[in-house]
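go over my protein:
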Amino acid sequence: MKNYVITIARGFGSGGKDIGTRLGKELGIPCYERQILTMASDQSGIDESVFVETDEKLRGRYLTTFLRRMPPTSNVLEPMEKDFTSDVNVFNIQAEIIRTLAKTESCIIIGKCADDILRDYDNVISVYIEAPRAACVKSIMEKMHVSEKRANYLIQSTDKYRAKYYRYYTSGKDWTNPINYDMVLNSDRVGREKCVQVIKDYIKIKFGE
């Protein structure tokens, strides 16, 4: 089998990152999430804090642009150009890294609109992980040691900015639309470990042994 990529979009608290990490360990391939920010910083020379600040969220003026429905450009700018550290260019730098990974190695990519960036690649499986709010709240409370009220706030705010980010960079697509993905899994009903197994089984179904 040639190299393949699993993209995982996830609701906050659904365990998508945990599932991706477990899947990577079982398959013996890397799982990229925060690492892409570091790679993008190293490649571009832009301080990593800029990538962290725009990680799956839009900054002020891009929210205004989003409301006007102005499509972002996909061209990566040169360091001397005015908007080199703009949100759009920062996104495009990460997108180029994601495309390079898809062409060169087997891996798992968490978030970053990777499913849409790689939508035309035939070696990609896209997965969306979600869970009921109660399960997400419990997960966040245990993982981050916060109150139920704080967990609810974090879930609502994080899912909101991720949805806006996805909609902006995919020209209006709905982040939770199952049509965007090969499969949608309810991690509460299926269980995280079984989600890993389901994805592994689907890899064999789609790509063969």
Observations:
- Residues 115 and 180 are 8 Å apart (CA to CA).
- Residues 5-201 form a domain with the Rossmann fold fold (CATH 3.40.50.300).
- The chain has one domain: 5-201.
- The first strand starts at residue 5 and ends at 10.
